């Protein structure tokens, strides 16, 4: 298969024996691991064709969409505060995801394409 023909796996949930939705997903073919030191942020660029990301981590972490993340140290009622440990989000290819944690931890990001 040529690079042009390669497509990111879709985000798809499988049904159980009775056809009810289950928590079973395809394995992502775009998995990333980010090792965070306490208080030191890192950014990840959403891969081409990705439209969804699943997060998992060994500890609490904060996410900022569209730029670098900073640890909250005061109230932020402006609507653009970082988000604490989301499970999954829709994303756009090329967008930046900022990650930061109060303690050293490892964050796993599994990207999926979502196509009709």
Question: How would you portray this structure in words?
Answer:
A 4-stranded antiparallel beta sheet has the order 3-10-5-8, with no helix packed on it. Strands 4-9-6-7 form a 4-stranded antiparallel beta sheet, with no helix packed on it. A hairpin with a 5-residue loop joins strand 1 and strand 2. The protein has strands at 13-15, 21-25, 31-36, 42-45, 52-57, 62-65, 83-84, 88-90, 96-100, 105-112. The protein contains no helices and 10 strands. The protein is mainly β. The chain is globular, with a radius of gyration of 16 Å.
Summarize, please.
With 116 residues, this protein is an all-beta fold. The protein has no helices and 10 strands.
- Return the average pLDDT rounded to an integer: 89
Intertermini distance: 21 Å
The total of beta strands comes to 10
Beta-strand percentage?
35-45%
- The DSSP helix count reads 0
Helix content: under 10%
Summing up helix and strand content along with how strands pair, one would put the structural category as: mainly beta
Record the strand order, biggest sheet: 3-10-5-8
Q: Provide the gyration radius in Å.
A: 16 Å
Taken from the alpha-carbon principal axes, the silhouette is globular
Which stretches of 5+ consecutive residues score pLDDT under 50? 1-5
Protein name: NAD/NADP transhydrogenase alpha subunit-like protein
